[in-house]
């Protein structure tokens, strides 16, 4: 029991620290691309602490308060159901009791809580942001699920542990054995991180802060915290599924950082797509590739 | 860049005042000092581009002067902002929106008055439709004088504000709450019946307890 509690806190703490350092790196990376110095790597931590220590927080009714709590609970649960290390007793959380199907459900808790909270705030920009978010979700969920399904079909299991165990060395990483599934997964994954080509939801200047327009003070701090933790959980999930998991913390940081760097590089290079362009893109390129992947995995004799 | 290590004349008085402020921060507890430090390190700016000063905010935020080095970035909405920058002259019509934006911000919040127009009206000193002293309507924490001040001056203003926040100086909002009757009377004098809606300062009607 004590093991579980320590493990859970270690996972939550580790995802938080990795989250703010990764986002701090992202801001520095962005700054260097734009030929400026940029903030310190710890800037996201400072911002988050500042919001958590604000003395005033506006609340529009009970649902407005519970929405961020639901999102936060969803993020913490997702963190606890993704195994961080392979062949280890530590940083496992409750992942032995869950599988990919459960994680798929947990990933949608966030947008749901968001819609509930923003709806009760009554701010038109917030509602606009949520509408865009749910439209984009419609585009990105289908290829995302298809990518997960491809991996599950390939290994004939829904257990993340079994999929990790099957990827013994570099040649057996799913990135090598099933590159189509990786491409099908990585694009919706970038969108779910609100990275640049797919950031219509909280588009700065356009819809102000989108769904977050009415959140302030501690609630915004909670939302920032969950966003950082959720990003790390998703990065670890992709690293588990396609990069063979990680046996040490250093390997985990290296693999998740490589994935994060890919997202950062794409998002600094490409301008924002409109909502319908995003949905079009997801239903053409990743979904088309996904269908080809299904045909290749299920029907072709050599697979 | 202009360095202000050495002072002459009236500047020394200012430094003595600021030294007294810096000493007052020693009374803060450890957690308060930590909070003050986080606060000063991360300032979200709601740039209210009222006058010509808005043109100075662009180079400040973008690559040339890069205010993000100091943790200063633009906020999309008043709800998330810590600092309201009033950049230049303020027409009476705009004042209403500024008051509303200011009251929607969440405490602790700070106001920077940019340019001479916020101090004494500047070149609009005899205009019929601008306010002359911003401090009569909303509490100003820091003035950056000049017509217009360069982005360097604005950065110095921000750094001075950061030092005050780190020293634990209460934000101007405390002054606003304490003297709300005076501020509201001043606002009513220029706005007349055209006052902004009062739900943004509903604590006023709760007798200051909310």
Your description of this structure?
The complex is a heterodimer of chains A (303) and B (210). With 303 residues, chain A is mainly alpha-helical. Chain A has one domain (2-298). Helix content of chain A is 70%, strand content 0%. Chain A has helices spanning 2-33, 43-52, 61-81, 100-107, 109-121, 124-155, 160-166, 174-177, 179-192, 217-242, 249-269, 275-298. In chain A, α1 runs parallel beside α11 (249-269). Chain B has a single domain (30-204), classed as 3-Layer(aba) Sandwich (Rossmann fold). Chain B has eight helices and five strands. Chain B has helices at 10-24, 30-41, 54-61, 92-104, 117-120, 151-166, 172-178, 180-191, and strands spanning 43-48, 72-74, 83-87, 110-114, 142-144. A five-stranded parallel sheet of chain B has the order 2-1-3-4-5. In chain B, α5 (117-120) links the parallel β4 and β5 (142-144). In chain B, α2 packs antiparallel against α6 and α3 (54-61) packs across α6 (151-166). The model of chain B has no long low-confidence stretch (mean pLDDT 84).
Short key terms for the protein model shown above:
heterodimer, A: 303 residues, mainly alpha, B: 210 residues, alpha/beta, Rossmann fold, 5-stranded parallel β-sheet, 8 helices, 41% helix, 10% strand
Count of alpha and pi helical runs of chain A: 12
Q: Percent range for helical residues of chain B?
A: 40-55%
- Morphology of chain A: globular
Listing every helix as H and every strand as E from the N terminus to the C terminus, the arrangement of chain A reads: HHHHHHHHHHHH
List the helices and strands and how they pair.
The complex is a heterodimer of chains A (303) and B (210).
Chain A: H1 2-33, H2 43-52, H3 61-81, H4 100-107, H5 109-121, H6 124-155, H7 160-166, H8 174-177, H9 179-192, H10 217-242, H11 249-269, H12 275-298
Helix pairs in contact in A: 1-10, 1-11, 2-10, 3-4, 3-5, 3-10, 5-6, 6-9, 6-12, 7-10, 9-12, 10-11
Chain B: H1 10-24, H2 30-41, E1 43-48, H3 54-61, E2 72-74, E3 83-87, H4 92-104, E4 110-114, H5 117-120, E5 142-144, H6 151-166, H7 172-178, H8 180-191
Parallel strand pairs in B: 1-2, 1-3, 3-4, 4-5
Helix pairs in contact in B: 2-6, 3-6
